[in-house]
Structure prediction request, 71 residues.
Amino acid sequence: LPLRSLAPLDLAGWAGLDADLALAAEAVELPGLPVLGNATASLRGTDGVWRLEALRGRVAGGELEAVLDLA
Prediction:
């Protein structure tokens, strides 16, 4: 899916939602950044706090592993 905007996500409407999602993509392409290939992650939301956990993928000939908090 093409990135439609670089504006911050408005997560206020998700405040009461609890979720645990598994994500996978062949490639993640963001403007100005190297392509992240074979990407996988878990997106977890509890009480309005969202966290992208176990983000893994290949980038620039190496491996990436990260955790992101979305506020």
